[in-house]
């Protein structure tokens, strides 16, 4: 019983422990249910996205996860900051689609920092994309804002429910290479 409840938290398990290996291979039912619920939420968010919109969603989500991890030490990023940043950026892109260049500011400082970091990332992703990219970006940003609202409605007492959800889904991608770096060389299969 102690092994199952205190494994890796209070008990320093050896790397070759068979019980530890089995626990990693077969997670608890609670973890599996949470993973299914998380994937269901994300699939609901991207339900009718085009390929470019899906890529933008992943790009923005991984960036948010990185910023949330970096900001945790100084000033934690909250769901309302993410929603505020997404609304201001979406409004900026929607205005640009109409031919007017106007930057809609975010209302909180953490949201403004998020906007400031996302702008160059989206500018790089939207090179030569023109109005079509701006429309796609606005749709994705509005959908992320709505996702924040939906996740917060499911867990109203948690101020980081959306952030925790995308951290669980996109944590591995956020720890990878910088999305602004050029793609790594293509892997090729060599057949004798």
User: pLDDT below 50 for ≥5 consecutive residues: which ranges?
Assistant: 177-185
Distance between the termini: 52 Å
Q: Considering DSSP H and I runs of 4 or more, what fraction of the residues is helical?
A: 55-70%
Total of helices: 8
* SSE series: HHHHHHHH
C-alpha geometry: elongated
Over all CA atoms, what is the radius of gyration? 20 Å
Question: Care to count the β-strands?
Answer: 0
Kindly give the count of domains. Answer: 2
Largest sheet: none
* Percent of residues in β-strands: under 5%
Structural class: mainly alpha
Overall mean confidence score, pLDDT: 84
Explain what the structure shows.
This protein is an all-alpha fold and 192 residues long. It folds into 2 domains: 45 residues, no CATH class; 127 residues, no CATH class. The radius of gyration is 20 Å and the shape is elongated. The N and C termini lie far apart (52 Å).
For this entry, give a set of tags.
single chain, 192 residues, mainly alpha, 2 domains, 8 helices, 66% helix, elongated
Walk me through the topology:
Elements (H helix, E strand, L loop, with lengths): L1 H5 L11 H8 L3 H17 L5 H21 L7 H19 L11 H17 L4 H25 L6 H15 L17
Task: Explain briefly what this protein structure is.
By secondary structure, the protein is mainly α. The protein has helices spanning 2-6, 18-25, 29-45, 51-71, 79-97, 109-125, 130-154, 161-175.
């Amino acid at each position: 019983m102690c092994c199952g409840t205190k494994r890796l938290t209070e008990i320093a398990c050896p790397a070759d422990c068979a019980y530890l290996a089995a626990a990693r291979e077969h997670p608890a039912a609670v973890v599996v249910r949470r993973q299914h619920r998380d994937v269901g939420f994300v699939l609901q968010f991207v339900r009718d996205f085009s390929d470019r919109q899906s890529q933008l969603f992943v790009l923005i989500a991984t960036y948010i996860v990185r910023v949330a991890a970096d900001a945790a030490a100084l000033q934690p990023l909250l769901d309302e900051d993410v929603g505020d940043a997404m609304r201001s950026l979406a409004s900026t892109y929607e205005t640009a689609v109409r031919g007017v260049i106007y930057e809609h500011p975010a209302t909180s400082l953490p949201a403004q920092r998020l906007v400031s970091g996302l702008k160059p990332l989206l500018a790089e992703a939207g090179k030569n994309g023109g109005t079509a990219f701006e429309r796609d970006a606005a749709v994705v940003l509005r959908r992320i804002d709505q996702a924040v609202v939906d996740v917060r409605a499911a867990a109203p007492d948690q101020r980081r429910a959306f952030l925790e959800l995308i951290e669980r889904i996109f944590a591995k991608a956020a720890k990878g290479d910088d999305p602004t770096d050029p793609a790594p060389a293509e892997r090729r299969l060599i057949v004798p």
